[in-house]
Amino acid sequence: EAQVTQNPRYLITVTGKKLTVTCSQNMNHEYMSWYRQDPGLGLRQIYYSMNVEVTDKGDVPEGYKVSRKEKRNFPLILESPSPNQTSLYFCASTTGRIPDTQYFGPGTRLTVL
Amino acid sequence: GDSVTQMEGPVTLSEEAFLTINCTYTATGYPSLFWYVQYPGEGLQLLLKATKADDKGSNKGFEATYRKETTSFNLEKGSVQVSDSAVYFCALSDLPGNTPLVFGKGTRLSVIA
User: Fold this and answer.
1) How far apart are CA B78 and CA B32, in angstroms?
2) What three-state secondary structure class fits B82?
3) What is the CA A63 to chain-centroid distance, rounded?
4) Would the CB atoms of A56 and B98 count as touching at under 8 Å?
5) Mean pLDDT of chain A
6) Residue A94's closest chain B neighbor by CA?
7) Residue numbers in A near B93 (CB within 8 A)
């Protein structure tokens, strides 16, 4: 089954404690993205990757890092989380062909205390 | 830059009522347009899409027509069901893969029996 998986689905942590949210897709997609969803703001892109070792900033990259060492994986790293990073996070992947249908993971709800 | 504006919610309808959710866009090129749906506790999934002017996307009884003259892509359904209760996002993609989907802020639909 074609899917995007994320782990963990729920995470409560404290300010400053480094964390990683994993994302994996099994569709051999080249393009992957991370979004955060906040009430009243919709979805905003954090980072995206066009291929292995190729990443670029989205609209709200501050406080986040990503890496793309393998095609299927695109982890999101918060080196020093802060309460304003409390949000619902989605990973997505796409072939990159027009039209661009993105496939979303189930989401990770992060709370930073 | 590109942007998507969709009607504010929440929208509450009775079962079998007619649904319209308005969406207008601003883009420099010729974007592909999408409607995504997010059911409670889940990630976003593609509902329908259209890639050029006058195209009509349709799925599960929902329809939307790409109107270049009014820069709109309004979502409609003739008879909603309780199972249609979800958050609906209008989105556009101006270039393949390596640029983000630009999302509207979402419209929450509640259908009551």
Assistant:
1) 24
2) helix
3) 13
4) yes
5) 93
6) B97
7) 98-100
Residue carrying structure tokens 């259908």: B111
Chain A residues lying within 8 Å of B106, measured CB to CB: 42-43
A61-96 pLDDT per residue, tens: 999 999 999 999 999 999 999 999 999 999 999 877
* CA-based nearest distance A43→chain B, Å: 6
**Residue B68 identity:** K
Burial B93-102 (b: 16+ CB within 10 A, else e): bbebbbbbbb
Q: What amino acid occupies position A92? A: A
Burial class (CB in 10 A: 0-12, 13-18, 19+), B111: buried
Encoded tokens for B65 = 């027509």
The answer to whether the CB of A32 falls within 8 A of the CB of A103 is: no
Do the Cβ atoms of B6 and B22 come closer than 8 Å?
yes
What's residue B98's pLDDT?
Answer: 45
Contact A112, A11 (CB under 8 A): no
DSSP B67: B
